[in-house]
Amino acid sequence: MHSEEQFSYNDRYGLRPANRWVAPAVVIASVGISWLVWAGLHHSNPAIRTSLISFTATTDREISLRYEVVRKDKNQVLTCTLVARDYDKNVVGQIEDEIAPGLASLEQTTTIPTRSQAVNADVVACRIK
Hints:
44% strand; 2 helices; 21% helix
């Protein structure tokens, strides 16, 4: 009862379809990785960067804030929003500090007048004027 035909798995189980998802997956992955690299490099080097150095409550009605600003274009005029907050995190003082053109990296100390005693201060944002 032995047949002379060659046994074929393809005849018995059928042909597997080709993986048609591989090419679109490679294209989508390469576009996604390229965008991820671009976004990481673009947003890691902003035009204006600020760093809070310290703050000191000088009196019950004012707080002193020391911060650093680094800008790519040293000829830009910047406006920085500085806030002072009380113990309950309510804003008790806010000013706009203007930074004239000059150095690309500078350290600034500013006094923020408050309506009550402040316990912390922060640089909210700096923007080009």
